[in-house]
Structure formats: C-alpha cells, structure tokens
Amino acid sequence: MSNPPGDTQPPLLEVRGLQMYFPVTEGLIARRQIGEVKAVDGIDLTIRRGETLGLVGESGCGKTTTGRCILRLETPTAGEIRYNGVDIAKLGRRELVALRRRIQVIFQDPYSSLNPRMKVGSIIAEPMRVHGVEPDATKRLARVRELLSLCGLNPNFADRYPHEMSGGQRQRVGIARALALDPEFIVCDEAVSALDVSIQAQIINLLEDLRERFSLTYLFIAHDLSVVRHLCQRVAVMYLGRVVELAACDELFDNPLHPYTRALLAAVPVPDPTVEAERSFQPLTGEVPSPINPPPGCVFHPRCPLTVAACKEARPELRELRPGHWVACGQVH
Amino acid sequence: MPPLLEVKNLETEFRTGAGIVHAVDGISYAVDPGETVAIVGESGSGKSVGALSILRLIPDPPGQIIGGEVWFAGRNLLQLSEEEMREVRGSEIGMVFQEPMTSLNPVLTIGRQITETIEQHRGADPETAHKRAVELLGLVGISDAERRLRQYPHQLSGGMRQRIMIAIALACDPKLIIADEPTTALDVTIQAQILELMQQLTRRLGVALIIITHNLGVVARYAHRVNVMYAGRIVESGSAAAVYHTPHHPYTMALLNSVPRLDRPRQARLDPIEGAPPDLTRLGRGCSFQPRCRFAVAACLEARPPLEPVGAPGQLAACFRSKELAAASGRAA
Considering the entire predicted model, what is its pTM? Predict the structure, then answer.
C-alpha cells in the first residue's frame, strides 16, 4: 500500500503477505496432521509512526493472531513483518529480546494477565529486571511509582496485590507495565473490552493521553466498533483471516463499501432510540465458516447479499477504490 | 389492564466474609403484558440479582431475599412453596441466560432438554413432546430439526445454542421471559440475529420480555421501557425515548455521555464518570452515586433521594436535583 503523497517517512510497521496456519491433529499416540486452521491467510498492513490503526472483526477472524505475530509470540508461516525497515518475522530468540523493548502489549483481561502472587510493584518492575534496565533497586522503585501515577493510580498501590484492585485499576497496572520499557509501539488487544462503560471511558482517555505524551503508535485490536471509531485514525476490517476493507476512520464508518463491513456496522445498535427507530436493517444470515475449510473464492460469499458466480471462483484482492480506501470485493466500485 | 408482573420493594442481600452486601436494595417496577423492559446497569449494580430474585434463584446461603413482593398473575411469588415455584419457572416464566454452554446440560441431547421441559410441565407423552420440539426449532430458525435434536450442545455454535435456549424458554407458552445478558457472549452479527429473533417472537406470541443488559445500544433498539440501576437501586425509569432524550438522573446523563458513538465522527475526548462504583457492604445513608456526582450538594449526603415522577409521563428519577438539572441540560441543548 502506498503512503499518501508527501509522506516520505517510512512506515513504522509493514506487514506483507502474512500467513499463520496452525496444524489440526488427530490421534492420541500416532498424531497425524489432518488439516490446518488458516487463522491469518495473507494480509498486508501498514502502520505509520504515531497513528492508531484499528483492527476489527468477529471472533476467529484472525485479528488477535495477527497481533501475536507482530509481537512475535508466534512465528508466522509465511510473509514479512518489517519493523523500522527490518524483517522481524524470522528473528530468533536472542534477536527478539531487543525488539521486545520497543514493542509491548496490553491484554484484554486484567484478571488473568497479572500474576496474582506478585505485588503490583514487582509486576511493573519485572520488564525492567528482565531487560536489565534500571538495575538499581531504589531507582527502579521510583520509576514504578512514576509509572503508577502516570496511569492515574496512587503510587502506594505498588505494595498491593492485584486481587485488591478493581478491573479498571488492574487494567491501569497492565498499561503501566507496558510502558515500563519506554516502548514506541503497543499492541492493544481488546484492551478496554472487559471493562464497564464508565470505566472504559477512563481507560480510553488514558490511552489517548499516553499516545500524545510519549508519541506512541498503537495497533488497536477490538470488536467494539464504536470504541474504534473514537480512538483510531485508520481501520482494517478482517473476516476469516483476511483484510476485506481498509480506510481512514471516518471514511470507513461513513462510506463502508464491502458488504461485510456494511452488515457489521448495521448490526451495532446505537444508543439513541430515535436513530434506532429510523434505521432499518436486515441481520446477516448464517455464521462464520470454519477457517479449517474456508469457502473457495471470496470467503464471505456464502453470507453475502451481492454474491455472483465469479465470487465463488477467485479470491478478490484489495483494490484502492478511493484514495486510501481499499476494498477486497469484485462487486463494489 | 393490570400489569403482568409487579415487583414491590424487593430486597436481596448476600452475607459474605466482608460483610452484608445489599445487592438489591428496594426496587419496584412493573411489566405489562407483551412489553419489553430493559434493565441496564454496570457490573454489581444488582441487575442480574434483581431478576434472579423474581424467580427465587438466589443461592441461599449466602444470598437471601429479605423483603418485598413479586406479584405475577395474581400471586405473590415470594409466598409460594418451592413445589409451586418450580411450576412457575420454565413454564409461566421462561429464562434465557448469558452463557448457553453452561446453562445447557452437556451430556443430554438438545432434543431431550427440550422435551424434558414439555413433559415435566405439560405432562405430555414423549411423542407429543417431540413434535412440539420440532415445531419450536422451526420457530427459532433452526433448519434440519430432526438432526439437530439428536445433537449435543458442544456440536453447536454459540448462536445456535442461544437459539436452543430461546426454544426451551418458549416451550410451555410462557407469558414472560427473563433474558439475562442473552447476547453478551456472542459476536455482533450473531447478537443482531438473536435479538431480532427475540423481538419478532415476543411480538408475535405476545410474550413480555425483561432483558438485562449493559449495552445502551441494545436498550435503544429493542426496549419499550428501561430501568437504570446503580448500586442496587433503580435510579431512573421510564420509556426508552424519554430516558435517552431527557435523562433526569446524573448517572444516566453521565452514562450516555461516556459511550463513544458509532454513528458520529469523533468530537472530543470522552467524558468519563470518575471514580468507581461504591462498596455495597458500606453504603452510607446518602445517595450512593453522590461520591461520583458532579452535581452533588450537602443534602445528597444526608438522605437517599426517593424515586419520584419527573419529565415525561411515567418517567421517574431518584435525585434531589433532577428537575433543575434536566431544565439546565435542556437549555444547553
């Protein structure tokens, strides 16, 4: 994907033809592979420095696996992940250590992503210990307290255990831990999904403040489209392991072109009874097919209202239908 | 016409190691025949406990319904014997829970779980019950009923399992269905399918529906009336249109302001509700929202504001300053 004219800065992250297949095995003693789950099946993404790219889709569409590949928690089956111009897709364990100081992650569930036996202070200090940053214990503690207050928590929380905190407070601890190594890029995997509405807004604002203050770049993986519209500059929509549409945020939400994106947006109810009374919508029929045996051609064709014979034959590639607006559908123009 | 269900001053508490939790602290509302009433609130607001108390499904110990009346079809459900109550549950009042995987029995076929309900409550013979089960699957949009009835819950998708739950809830022609977060575990396109199905069926069969949700959009799209709960009490109640357009309680106003909107471009930072919900074991004598309320005055610390008529006909709010605030926000808008 080309950068907009005048943008000479190379992108922070470039993903090309990323594939991640997981083997499906059968048999207890003699295990044999009977197929593979095509979790991510050839996607291209570009993330510019300082922007927030939203990655949306339903369960099983491959958005989390994409994030895990970029974090190199998985080794992709094929494809390139260029970070600052260097392909990190095939780096070994040692080379990854340096990378992990710059790329961090915030997970969805603040209950299971914090070790219940560690105090909050040790949880936040752990990345610094592992990477040998701030070897002096006093300085490290000072840094922990600074990170806590940066994330809107009382610095004395360093002595607490995660179970003594609410969900929103734990998520703040998860964010403080991600910031401990001064990263430039953070993968937020459903970072606000488990939180109650009133707490969710607090965390969204915190993520925005931190992005500005530390010039962070986010990959924001989420299924809540309203949150994505609020937080992201560009959005990629995934369906069954593929990116089906990618555009600037308002363009995508105001002029969705792919039939799947349209159905997805229509399915989300808006908190306004007057707007809802005027919206007519036809829910998408059927369910997402199995990624072990995806349909031929366009993966969306069994549920698509626009399907013609050609959709069953060839897989549509992403085409730039309007400036910066990419769509993988042969039936829209 | 008398209401189908009338809840009066219902109070439920849980005795825990940390003290007595006043999960439901005196709630009153009514549901008319065929009406859809939404109960909205955040985690711990008492919305689920309030609904489970209607069916007397509170585990005792630690929970106990300590006061109030629940009038349904001329009887106070809280006075019935356990035997009589079992006849009401699943027959006159159907239930749909959040997690269909845990509310279906994993070792019984789908068919058996539906026919069991019919045989139990209707005394039907197996053949009649089977016929009714086939009919019910058709009603909830599951094709190939004979094959599905022989399957087990794990062989079905989440959306399909929730359809089965709805079929079971409808099996004995109930007058009321209580649905506790029926679509929270489902993806957005499947959520839309299930909610549309519930709306169609309740309309067609004239069944009343109490839907418990934290999703303000779902309320706006599907509910006639809404009760907003906070810390075990109803703080605002009324028609969905009135409550969304002219909210009279600061919590409702703040809640509506703190959610990002899918249908509007990003305007500014979100306006979150600061702080966290109160500890239900240590509620003061004042308004429980007072510590987070930006409009609180001295009187709010002294006594709990009663739920009083405000604004539109049938609208109620529990705030000393509701009229003044609604007038001010009306002028601003």
Answer: 0.88
